Amino acid sequence: MTWWRQRTERGVAPWVRTRLRTAPGAAVAFGVLVLVTAFLTAALPRALDAYETKGLRQEIASAPPAATSVELSAPQPGLEIAQSTREKAVRPPALAAVRRAALARLPAPLRADTTESTYGVRTSKSLTGLNSWLPVIDAPPHFTLAAQSDLAAHSTVRGGRLPTAAGEVTAGTRKVEAAVTEATARTLRLRVGSVIDVDGFGGAPLAVRITGIVEPRRPQGGYWSAEPVLRTPGVAADPSSRPPQFYWEAGLLLAPGAAPVLLGSQGQPELYWRFAPATGRLTAQDVPALVSRIASLEGGPDLLRMREAAGSTAAVSTDLETVVGSYTTTRAAITPVVAVGTFGIGAVAAVVLVMAGGLIAVRRAAELALLRARGGSLRGIAGRLLAETAVVAVPAAAAGLLLAVLTVDEARLGPAVLGVSAVALLACAVLPVRAVVAHRRPRANAEREDLAQAKPGRRRTVAELTVLVLAVGSVVALRRRGASSTGDFLVSAAPVLVGLIAALVLVRLYPLPLRWAARPAARGRGVVGFLSLARAGRSSTVGVALPLLALLLALTTAAFGGSVLAGVSDARDRAALLATGADARIAGPGEATELPAGVEGAVRKVAGVREVTAVRTERTAELASGEAGGKDGLTLIGVEPESYARLARQTGLGAFPADVLKPKGTGGVRTGGVLNAVASPGLAERLGRAPRRITSPAGDVTVRIAAVRSRTPAAPGADFLLVDAAGLERSDPTTLLATGATLDGPALRAAVRGAGKGLTVTVRAEERAALSDAPLQAGAERIYTAAALAGAGYAVLALLLSLLQSAPERAALLARLHTMGLTPRQGRRLLSLDALPQALLAASGGMLAGWATVRLLAPGIDLERLALAATAGRAPVVGASLRTDVWSLVLPAAGTVLLAWAVAVAQAWWAGRRTSITELRTGGMR
Questions:
Q1: Residue 179 in contact with residue 196, Cβ under 8 Å?
Q2: pTM for the predicted model, two decimal places
Q3: 3-state SS assignment for residue 242
Q4: How far apart are CA 713 and CA 849, in angstroms?
Q5: Residue 137: alpha-carbon gap to chain centroid
Q6: Residues lower than pLDDT 70 in the chain
Q7: pLDDT given for residue 869 in this prediction
Q8: Dihedral through CA 766, CA 772, CA 773, CA 778, nearest 10?
Q9: Sign (positive or negative) of CA dihedral 838, 840, 842, 844
Q10: Which residue from 26, 37, 308, 599 has the least number of CB within 10 angstroms?
Q11: Nearest CA-CA partner of 58 in 326, 395, 415
């Protein structure tokens, strides 16, 4: 007997293997759903990390090296020290030893890019060149002398050779060698062999002989650009002189071994070790530690450690914390806005997972009821269901995590693991929990819960009121504070809560139209309408609420994401237009010089140019002496009224009738010598309506303000005064504004290059493309695009799951009706009408919820930081806020209805190919 029992127990098939073999298709489909959801859950935080890290690195890389370099400096050795010791302290071996010690003391996460870092000795105060042949502006040129390391590795010799230190250079040496860059040689008329006498060395000047002319290999790198005067000469002013005296300031590169000669100068020599930051290993999570370490370097424990290497008087200076602070401000403005969108897609994914588990539970309701009726315990049934679900969900979630890690690199693993764990836990728990709740008590027959007759209980009412209070609170908080509080999950969940409220309201209202429509349908002669409405009313509350909630959340998320993207696109279009004023802008240096005569004709001949408007811009105009406010400048713009009015109307920048600039009844330009003008609001308030006298390089004119406009194409971001150019003494244009839908930037530049020199061409399309290049803004935009697409995908999936849940029942009903004489055409109509009520409810509710979400949350969300990177000199974009995007509302909703109809028609066609005996066989799980 014992042997028989053992054989029987070994012969019983394991539960999990049996269930998987019974329904392999359902297991695979559920696994794919878990895999996709786990991938999105893991990829989202990793994508956030990746684009934030990329944004930090680009912010540092694009900032001037003078701002990002960390400089350790020390004054020259004290005079109380022996001269030989002082000279030894500034020679290359001593400086290199300090550099090695300082590198070892740089605190993480701050790391140095040794290829762009350097050290040496320089004069912190520039010294005067005494040679009469040197070019003079108002005063003789000044020179910064620097004995900087590794010149050979960072430059290419274009003439002569690199400087050397002949013999042992001391503080008393008065002849040294130096190299200059090509830009310095060209500006100061230097060549190999030139000797510059530099003042400030006691009695006799220092004779610096130029031995080489070099070309920087990476002119924008930290080696050359941390102190730009060594690379490119510039114009400086002496602030102590009245009026200011301007002069050239340039750099002379001495040999490192010649550093001791600077100790004998009056240029306040100092020792420096400059470290360019390495960003290759820097991540967004390092920002707090980086800011803290920079502060410690400038005035904390890390500064004391640096002084151990460089001396007690050493100091550390950098503007890197300002650069990082700008990045932090932008990220803090973008992250909450992104969180608002990502909460929606997370909620939709969770509801769809619950729906998938619910579909499996409904399909196996009879099986589970039989197990419960035969004595199966809730713990045993739940354990078996958990095991068979975990066998599919856990490997699928792990595969999703692996795929996300392989797809998105340079990101933390922890948040992705937590998200995937939550997905796996939800996927494993939904079926056992649903089964335990549904089969708490053994039941012989399932109780039918008609939606049309269901009466909500007290618990449901309390739960719905609680959700309503949370939704109202989140919306009010978002409208008052804006999406600016990182980590405020209630504010971020506002769209989800609004969609949830819409779902609860629609579930409560859904039975009313069904009851109203069922009465006339029952009195009619046709059977199709009555049957479809009767079936819709007999749906269970849970069977309608979950799919409706998923569809509403998905449609709301898609509408919100689409509206964000539309607002971002509008803001960038507007910013590009404000940067150019037209489709292309051609101007001379500073828009202050008149254009060559042939430029306008050359521009008109370029393919794609539709119209060219010539304007004269005078940015140095001001009120005449004696007028109130005469010291305040203004921008005077002379235009041809007809063409400029067309341009303003086409661009939407301060449109006005051309007759405004033409005085009435004169047939000319002037009326008593007074020109009509269009002014900006600020300037109109300053000038008033009385005639005012304006002086400018284009001539003196008297103007009277005839109209006020906030912007104009010629000067979108400034206070302006528009007048008819015919009334100016000098009306030759300084700027051309071209329009055309297919302007070719390279062709336009080629045409302008051939017509004149020094002209700049700004193309609107290129400006628009450049606004999308910032990693933070581009990454956030990709997140929102993914959220909108994923929301649409989950909406489709929720609809399919809802239809699949009732598909066996509909097929059996159709088979029964076919045996009673229902035609195939009537069958298709029946299934179509059966699927449409819920689809129409979800589509209309989704559009309404999406519209309400955008309208409610728009005042609290500013998209300017999300759309535009912080750019100096960019005109502010007014109205970069959330707006309703019609296509994001209509397309997903229409797709939901069309998909429901298509699935219903396909099922009717497929059911017509199967025999009624197949659908109605005894024991079928219908």
A1: no
A2: 0.79
A3: coil
A4: 39
A5: 46
A6: 1-13, 242, 442-457, 460, 478-479, 481-491, 511-545, 625-632, 663-672, 805-807, 809-810, 818, 821, 862, 869-880, 911-926
A7: 65
A8: -170
A9: negative
A10: 308
A11: 326
For 110, list phi and psi in degrees, rounded to 5: -75, 120
Give the integer Cα–Cα distance in Å for 893 and 842: 8
What amino acid occupies position 177?
E
Retrieve residue 757's tokens.
């020199």
* Number of other residues whose CB lies within 10 A of the CB of residue 204: 11
* CA distance readout (Å), 795 to 423, 546, 562, 900, 909: 18, 12, 15, 11, 24
Q: What is the pLDDT of residue 8?
A: 40
Whole-angstrom CA distances from 222 to 1, 118, 712, 797 are 88, 9, 41, 53
Cα 844 to the chain's mean position, in Å?
Answer: 32
Q: Which residues of 131-160 are buried (b: 16+ CB within 10 A; e: fewer)?
A: eeebeeeebbbbbbbbbbbebeebbeeebb
pLDDT at 526: 64
Q: Count the neighbouring beta carbons within 10 Å of the beta carbon of residue 71.
A: 16
Please give the structure tokens belonging to residue 748. Answer: 């336009």
Please say whether the beta carbons of 399 and 36 come within 8 A. Answer: no
- Angstrom distance (rounded) from CA 378 to CA 371: 10
Cα–Cα distance, 500 to 478 (Å, whole number): 17
Read off φ and ψ for residue 109, nearest 5 degrees: -90, 10
CB 861 within 8 A of CB 881: yes
Q: How many CB atoms lie within 10 A of CB 557?
A: 33
The amino acid at 628: A
Sign of the alpha-carbon torsion through 432, 437, 442, 447: negative
Tens of pLDDT along 245-283?
889 999 999 999 999 999 888 889 999 999 999 988 899
Q: How far apart are CA 854 and CA 286, in angstroms?
A: 35
Pairs from 743-749 (Cβ < 8 Å, separation ≥ 24)? 743/583, 743/584, 743/606, 743/608, 743/609, 744/606, 744/607, 744/608, 745/584, 747/606, 747/607, 747/608, 748/584, 748/586, 748/603, 748/606, 748/609
Tokens of 725: 């150019």
- DSSP-assigned letters across all residues of 667-718: SSS-BTTEEEEEE-HHHHHHH-SS-EEEE-TT--EEEEEEEE-S--TTSTTS
DSSP of 182-225: HHHHHHHT--TT-EEEES-SSSSPEEEEEEEEEEESSTTSHHHH
Query: Tokens standing for 209?
Result: 């002989």
Closest by Cα among 702, 741, 746, 394 to 582: 741
Name the E strands within 206-290.
206-216, 234-238, 245-254, 269-277
Q: Write down the number of H helices and E strands in the chain.
A: 30, 21
Number of Cβ within a 10 Å radius of residue 402:
15
The closest alpha carbon to 74, from 268, 264, 276, 292, belongs to 268
For residues 388 and 16, the answer to whether their CB atoms sit within 8 Å is yes
Q: Would you state the structure tokens that stand for residue 680, as one six-digit string?
A: 């900006």
**Dihedral in degrees, nearest 10, Cα atoms 666, 670, 675, 678:** 40
Give dist(CA 483, CA 336) in Å, integer.
Answer: 5
Rounded distance between C-alpha atoms, residue 320 and residue 675, angstroms = 52
Contacts of 207 (CB under 8 A, 6+ apart): 174, 175, 176, 195, 196, 197, 198
Output the CA angle 109-115-121, nearest 5 degrees.
100
List pLDDT tens digits, range 466-495.
877 877 777 777 667 665 555 556 667 777
Q: Which residues pair with 207 in a beta bridge?
A: 175, 197
Are the C-beta atoms of 809 and 366 separated by less than 8 Å?
A: no
At 383, the amino acid letter reads G
Q: For residue 919, what are its two tokens?
A: 């659908």
C-alpha span between 838 and 411 (Å, rounded): 42
- As a whole number of Å, the CA-based R_g of the chain is 38
Please state whether 480 falls in left (phi above 0), alpha (psi between -120 and 50) or beta: alpha
